[in-house]
Amino acid sequence: MVTAAGGNQSRRLIPKLSAMGHQVRAVRVSGDKEAETRALGASEVLIGDLTDVDFYTRALEGCDAVYHIGPAGRWTELEMGHSMIEAARRCRTPHVVFSSVLHSIIDIVQHRFKRDIEEKLYESGLPYTVLKPCDFMIPAMQFGPVLATGELRVFWKVREGRRGSLIDVEDLTDVAAKVLVEGSRHFYASYELSGTDKLTSREMARIFSRVMGKEIPVVQSNVDEAIAHRWGSSEITPQNQGIHRVLTSIAAWYSDHEFVGNSNILEWFLGRKPITFEQYLRRELPLLGVPVT
């Protein structure tokens, strides 16, 4: 079973598991894209509230493993995680794989949620694996705003020398598929997953400029602008208030600290070097009709 079936990870993981011959039960919180999820390769699509332990238990019944992804920015992420653990206990699920975050001990809202879920998972007695990726390479975060504005807009304080690690979600879901399929080889392991790049905002902008063949400057932005880009308005609504709190927390921490990891574990899983940010842009931009140099 794979949760957050419309999200960045699931849209890449479900086809990989299906192509390997596995039946995938996908779970979404809304039912407007069920056909799209089936087209990805899901054999079943369930719609429901993952904070409801009884629903989660019904969804998980009969599955050999669960890949639990907390939907980004949902203020109920902690409840969903606790619900997952209780459902897995009831179902005696053979393998629980939890998508957490790199350095879950740091003081960022979503990190605190995931850290607390990890703690309960470790205490549960369930066979588990925890994946701990760094920041994702995804269009909405990196090149969406660049294509819209011609600028790399950063919603935390732009500070000279401040670096961040990035991971290609294709690489991450290759790891997730391997862990789910190989099962017991990965029981009771926590894997920190980072790409090789450790980039400042200005280094990212230089890569954009080189790939796109035009100057892309770094511009100081803020959380409200980031929200407006993604939702069309900076107005706080019930739909975006969770992500607003998460982004505000990220901005506060990232303004003062680097967020970097080591690529050794990811390289070990992949058997190759991870995709770099420049390789990612050269792969993804042409898919949007954007020429690269």
From TrEMBL:
Record-annotated NmrA-like domain positions: 2-261
SUPFAM superfamilies membership: NAD(P)-binding Rossmann-fold domains
PANTHER family, sorted: PRESTALK A DIFFERENTIATION PROTEIN A (PTHR43162:SF1), PTHR43162
InterPro entries from the UniProt entry: Ergot_Alk_Oxidoreductase (IPR051604), NAD(P)-bd_dom_sf (IPR036291), NmrA-like (IPR008030)
Organism: Sphingobium ummariense RL-3
Short name of any one Pfam family annotated for the protein: NmrA
Protein name (record): NmrA-like domain-containing protein
